[in-house]
Amino acid sequence: MPLKKTKNSRSSNTRRLSSSHSSVTHVAFIPLLVLVFVVWVIYRTLFKFPIWFDETIGKAIFFGLPVWLYITLTRSKSMIQTFSLKRLFPGLFLGLAVGGIFGFSGVLASLLHQQVHIQAVPLFLSDGFWWAFFLALMTGFWETLFFYCWVMVIVTEKYAKWSFVNQLLMISAIFLLFHIPNTLLRFQGVTVISQLFLLFFFGLGQALLFARYRNLYALALSQAIWGMVIVIYTR
Questions:
Q1: Which pLDDT belongs to residue 112?
Q2: Contacts of residue 44, Cβ cutoff 8 Å, sequence gap at least 6
Q3: Residue range 227-232: mean pLDDT, rounded
Q4: Taking 90 as the threshold, does the pLDDT of residue 21 lie above it?
Q5: Whole-prediction pTM value?
Q6: Residue 162 DSSP symbol
Q7: Mean of all residue pLDDT scores within the chain
Q8: What are the start-end ranges of the H helices in the chain?
Q9: Phi, psi for residue 104 in degrees, rounded to 5
């Protein structure tokens, strides 16, 4: 019995030390996140660049650079593992599966609203479609890297004592917060509220998917397909 107590105490001490070390390691998380948000709002409000620039170069700078800097300083293995090349093909298959659900939902919604049927072959042969899909992939990649491979991983480590629900709500709220400036610029009135609800629940769904698989590629592809479904079926 004393031996078991000793082992249990050592185990609990190890967990406390690990949690304490994680909190110290991630002490720069909140200040860096706030800084990125402030600069991102300024960028979205004051500058009007083409969409291709925003989704590739702009998000690479504002979303990719902070993650690279954080990984360089902390050498967080838990973050690096989320985009390991070993996860590429399983992630792509999963992303296609989830994206297929989004696509089916879009078709069903268009039929219910008696919209004109969109023929797949001319759509997929269109250069405009693949260019838009490429931009959607860039959006999905940089946003997944930032909000899930960085924000979600660090939130679950820094606030390990929180319940899973509270962690999910915080991550979804951060996802929504960063999307508010663009939503306010693009929409007006009641549409803004509906878009914000949609974004929050989409961010929540992506967080649940990431919590299960921890795979950048799955989320990036599913977000890209989700974005294309919205563009095609809500025009």
A1: 67
A2: 181, 182, 185
A3: 82
A4: no
A5: 0.84
A6: S
A7: 85
A8: 2-25, 29-46, 51-53, 59, 65-74, 77-80, 88-112, 120-124, 127-144, 153-158, 164-186, 190-213, 216-233
A9: -60, -40
